[in-house]
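stuck on this chain:
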Amino acid sequence: MISSKFTKHVITVTCLLSIAVNTNAQNSEFGLFLGGSYYMGELNPRKHFAEVTSPAIGIYHDAHINSRYSWRTIATFGKLKANDNLTEIGLNNYRNLQFETNIYELSGQIHFNFLPYGSSITKKPFTPYIFVGLAIFHVNPHVSSIGSDTLSTALPKEDYTRTLTSVSMPFGLGFKAIFGTISLGIEWSFRKTFTDDVDGVDNQYSIGNINDEPEQYPQPKGFQKGTFNTFDWYSYAGITISFRPGPKKNSCPAMN
């Protein structure tokens, strides 16, 4: 016969496991990112936000390690675009190109809260934070000439699409606050890539005049087209909305 003492121990262990599961659920939140995405590189060397920002959306899961650290897994969809009319640089005006692409990204990030963040009386219901991580992204840039008939524009007209899957390093900062079971925040992040092909622009012209050929194009073959020894960047900025379950009342009889 099973003793009542043993039965109580079984109930106690079961309840402890239940509490652990509930605590883990309370330390997680699912959320939505809504904002914009933009690119910086040869076709947009300086400008943030204005003229180059497109809508972006993401879904994420935050696993809270403790009140200071959390791990975020986020899938994001956006669009990148830019053109040589955004700058007065001579090479850009001569090149006269534009590009646009959808961008798909999956990222893992470690977040650090400057304040002990949480919903208990010993923690703060708001905090600024910073983060860093690693991402994999996919783009298919469509590059084309803007469409000028002036002789200063490089010929022939360009119109092509490429595909690239690569990695980037996300990092950024934000601020978030708890309102009951909802967390609201604002965030700005950057992605350092390790490729110069996000925009699909080559570093040199692959066709043009060479030596004794008759002059068919304004540029010689091998003439500079992109920027050497630099990598492209892209960024996200927007708001975050997530659901954060609150603590549940203990209903385990063995713990009362």
Summary: The beta strands are 28-40, 54-64, 69-83, 97-113, 126-139, 142-145, 159-161, 164-179, 182-193, 233-243. Residues 204 and 225 are 5 Å apart (CA to CA).
